[in-house]
Design brief:
14% strand; 16 helices; Rossmann fold; 2 domains; alpha/beta; 7-stranded parallel sheet; binds uridine-5'-diphosphate
């Protein structure tokens, strides 16, 4: 497959999940990729170390975006992306998911009439309280190529009147991210040892969404349930997102952390390794809902809505902060080896590990068309 010319595909990222899910695409694009980082996640633990660990090329960094209100993040990134695209016009812009960075990338591509490729198109939570829902709907309206992960995602797009000719069901790039980044068994065993954990005998938890962190009642309800599991003898490992740490301190909830093993946010390989052997994961993350289906582990999703119903069929269940977390956790934990074996035997509903390759093929076809148009 002939590849697009050097730095001709602008890949706009801004947060941890975008780095994870676009790594394989950027690797396959090789010199054709121009990685642009808006700085939405500016924390070393959520961004800098991921660029290194995932082996991504040095990005062009934008400034004045991280930690700012949503409108400023989008506006500042849009203005700077427009300058980058004017100086070095790409043949296509790739954005992933539903972040402010992705929306800014989409608007910047649209303003300069550059074809826009949306990776992970067609997710819908139908929850208008989530800024991400507005971002993904807007990006899908603007995109020229919508890479849907599943047939359900395609159906969401068709229902909104988006023509089928713009949609490609590629699978989700998270599948190959997990396959490539999961450490080998010996390395995983060493990591579990370091945390004093035995396989299939601990809970891994992450909490960072505003709906769980910004309301002290919700935050304490989640932490209380995790603390109760730990006090019952089930070790609970909690890699703490910087936002959550801040909110816990502000709300005076530090005492609820005492029974838990609290760490800084983990690198991607370490997180996958610990998720791979957890008896149960409790999380409000989007990407983790997909990753557990590849790793074959059960998940309690602490959120009021999900845009990933595919994961809810076998691997995950949606609950609100409160006693339902503990009740459901005990049901999963009681299902023991048989429960884990059942999940391990199921295929992920999110794809076959070839999504990035399919998307790169589309980009190569673009490059060929634009070369022909220039020659004509
Ligand atoms: N993750 C990680 N280290 C951690 C916690 C999560 O590498 O300590 C990864 C996780 O595997 C997933 C991604 O971060 O791929 C999810 O990011 P986040 O939850 O911030 O975003 P979301 O997926 O909810 O948009």
């Amino acid at each position: 497959m002939p590849m697009p010319p050097a730095r001709s595909v602008a890949v706009v990222v801004g947060t941890r999940p975008e780095l994870v899910k676009l790594t394989e695409l950027v690797r396959l694009l090789g010199p054709a990729a121009h990685l642009i980082h808006t700085g939405q996640h500016y924390d070393e633990e959520l961004s800098g170390r991921f660029l290194q660990e995932l082996g991504l090329p040095e990005p062009t960094f934008l400034t004045g975006v991280g930690g700012r209100p949503r409108a400023v993040q989008i506006g500042a990134a849009l203005a700077q992306l427009d300058e980058v695209f004017a100086a070095e016009p790409p043949i296509a812009v790739v954005v992933q998911g539903d972040t402010n960075a992705a929306l800014a990338g989409a608007l910047a591509a649209n303003s300069r009439d550059i074809p826009l490729v949306h990776v992970e198109a067609g997710l819908r939570s139908h929850d208008r309280d989530m800024p991400e829902e507005h971002n993904r709907v807007l990006i899908d309206r603007l995109a020229d190529v919508l890479c849907a992960a599943t047939e359900d995602n395609r159906a969401n797009l068709l229902a909104e009147g988006i023509p089928d000719s713009r949609i490609a069901v590629t699978g989700n790039t998270v599948v190959e991210a997990v396959e490539r980044q999961l450490p080998a068994p010996a390395e995983r065993a060493a990591l579990l040892d370091r945390y004093g954990l035995a396989p299939d005998a601990y809970v891994l938890a992450t909490v960072h969404r505003p709906e769980n962190t910004d309301d002290p009642d919700a935050l304490s309800a989640v932490l209380r349930e995790l603390a109760a599991l730990a006090r019952d003898g089930m070790p609970v490992l909690l890699p703490l997102h910087p936002r959550t740490r801040g909110r816990i301190e502000a709300a005076g909830l530090d005492h609820l952390l005492e029974p838990l093993t609290v760490t800084r946010p983990l690198g991607y390989g370490a997180f996958l390794a610990l998720a791979r052997h957890a008896a149960l994961i409790v999380s409000d993350s989007g990407g983790v809902q997909e990753e557990v289906t590849v790793l074959g582990r059960p998940l309690i999703v602490v959120r009021r809505s999900t845009e990933r119903p595919e994961a809810m069929r076998d691997f995950a269940a949606l609950v609100r902060p409160g006693p339902e977390i503990g009740r459901l956790a005990r049901v999963w934990l009681d299902s023991g080896r048989a429960g884990l074996d059942r999940l391990a035997s199921l295929d992920s509903p999110f794809g076959d590990g070839l999504a990035s390759r399919r998307i790169v093929e589309r980009l190569a076809a673009f490059a060929e068309r634009s070369a022909l148009a220039t020659a004509a």
